[in-house]
């Protein structure tokens, strides 16, 4: 969470603009795997992409620099030229994003993106090329343009995709509007594609892998890793639904696409460049970047802003660049910030007003309080939805004359107290506690004769599910073992 001072309304407008750029591609494609050819990048598309690019970088934590980013750029350009959008490598801009969310996307104008978290989940260069090729395939097949008209009919939320408007909120307009504001913490900027479009993009990505000399089976193996990660996330977060996490939200159901990708790959072979890939991503930050705050169990700590809070029992958190989202069966919420001029009452009222463009939401009353020595104010608004009434709470804290933070939560009417422990847990942290927040990084090691999955997993910088995390990180099924001399990834504390 790297806060800026834009309101939620402004964030929604920026995201909407990005969605429109995603749909601006003037290309054509036939069915997946049939040798679809795309038109070249037009000057109009190049201008659109150039305008959207800075906004997307800001929303996803910024572009990384250095050898790891240069490597991703090289692989991305190599696969992008296979699409016939352009034969010039310099026509493409490939960015490695400083985001702990598993995501990848491309926009017209030759702009391609992947997050460092998704790269960390991969196990060879062919998988990296496959994911980036899949995204280029969406652009070449004009998928975003096909989806835009339907998304426009369903308002802004349709373009963003709703992952939070579940049983609590229903499908009412106001519930969706509030939910679209809260989901900013999940960093969903890309359009939701249909299953057929995902399969078509898989096919195009596999086609690009073949033409670039990579093993086309890499598309299936990275989809399998994503499915395993989704299932692990669901288990760790206490969810029964394993398809919610970010990349799967905009790219539905990777597990069901694995067999299809294998069939498309057939008996073809090619290079994977596994050892090269692993050596290049050694040291890559994995999970939250302390500059954006970190989630440690049920606690969120931001060393830069010197704050911490604890999520309620039964809830899990997702750290985004604009907000931290808090999600559970009995409600949803986020922590974010907005412009602050020293008037906490105005700040809270503006936070309510920013939640919806269609229906004014105002608190029934505001109350001042102090939380762990921090001046605070909160209010509740009861709102009608398709599934009954819900309570919307804004709970704000003044950290200085120019800096305030606030929670926005939604729960069924009369049940907002589920968030009270979280509201009361907000605290300032000391300089010493802030200094103890150290990032996790990927450490590539070579399996020795005495190493086992269990012994290597014990070195993972987690207190829970170490073996499961190790297997998912390295794409190892429950029955697979290690061989001496094999390179594997660990997640350890950085220095």
TrEMBL record:
Q: What cofactor is this protein dependent on?
A: Zn(2+)
Q: Which GO terms describe its molecular function?
A: metallopeptidase activity
PANTHER family xrefs: METALLOENDOPEPTIDASE OMA1, METALLOENDOPEPTIDASE OMA1, MITOCHONDRIAL
Keyword NADP present in the record's keywords: the answer is: no
Its lineage reads: Bacteria, Pseudomonadati, Pseudomonadota, Alphaproteobacteria, Sphingomonadales
- Renumbered to this chain, the signal peptide range is 1-31
| Keywords noted in UniProt | Hydrolase, Metal-binding, Metalloprotease, Protease, Signal, Zinc
Is-annotated flag, keyword Signal?
Answer: yes
InterPro entries membership: LysM, Mito/Outer_Membr_Metalloprot, Peptidase_M48
Q: Which residues form the LysM domain?
A: 443-490
This chain's protein is named Metalloprotease
CDD domains, sorted = LysM, M48C_Oma1-like
Origin organism is: Tsuneonella deserti
